[in-house]
Fold this protein.
Amino acid sequence: MARMVNENWCENDVQTTALNEPGRGTARWGPQHAGAKELANLYSPGKRCQEWISVVLCFSLMAFNFFHLFANFHLGHFWYILLCVVAGMLTADFASGLVHWAADSWGSVELPIFGKAFIRPFREHHIDPTAITRHDFIETNGDNCMLTLIPLAYMAFTVLTHSAAELYHSYLWNCYVMALAVFVTLTNQIHKWSHTYFGLPGLVVFLQNCHVILPRKHHRIHHVAPHEMYFCITTGWLNYPLEKLGFWCKLEDLIQSLTGEKPRSDDLKWAHKTK
Ligand SMILES: [Zn+2]
Ligand SMILES: [Zn+2]
């Protein structure tokens, strides 16, 4: 694949917005931002190891399950299978929004183990949006591969232990689970593509232009500070309806009224870092 070169629209958009905000002072977004440098240095060998194990296990299980589905495919089920795939994509899009919203809005990098391992990349992404385009396959996809391990392992277990009749009855459900797992696994790769402006394979650009996966222009909306909307990053199909419903605002108001915590306070803290 051609070397990927990236445009800095995201940085510029965010920077312009951020600099117009009171109190942001001379914050410079991108790899030179003090907070971005500190967050990049928190990526540890232990974290790298967890990502490698997750990627190897996830893709092995996916190949095994896919072989089972392919071997039992019947053309007569095509439209049902397509429906299951679309349902899996919708569920993955909602899940991506929920996880992204939760990690952006709540918690802190200072939380023991979890903060450094799983919240850090979200903080880094807002102050250095192009960092993701410099991450390799393992760093980009490791955490998402970990998320799908349990459902994929359970499906492989049923393939090995259930009777042919039982597997026939659960075939469409397994198609749904497989589509969900594939799109959850690919979410951060799709997100990375939405930040990449040169050297993308033609098929990826075609899928973005048809809005089958997250389009680049669509994802810009999330990157306008203070990053409080358009959290879904798999297909982005649910962003508009969820904003219309005020879904994230209502959820944040509810949590704030119950806990007294303000959303995105940790995110703002990192954005304001000057040294
Ligand atoms: Zn975000
Ligand atoms: Zn992004």
